[in-house]
Amino acid sequence: MKRKASLGQIFAVPASLFVIGLTGLVWALLVDGPQDILAGLAVASSLGVLIWALVRKR
Prior knowledge:
The protein has helices at 7-30, 35-57. By secondary structure, it is mainly α.
């Protein structure tokens, strides 16, 4: 019998990806220079997780 996951467990990863992406977007708007690379990585983190999930599913 499968154990039911709570709402916190279900939405923990999507919520954290949202916070990381939003932080990256705001950071990219406010900062110039080499820190733009880190902001871009933060924005692209959700895309990286999506690609990882698609590759792992195969």
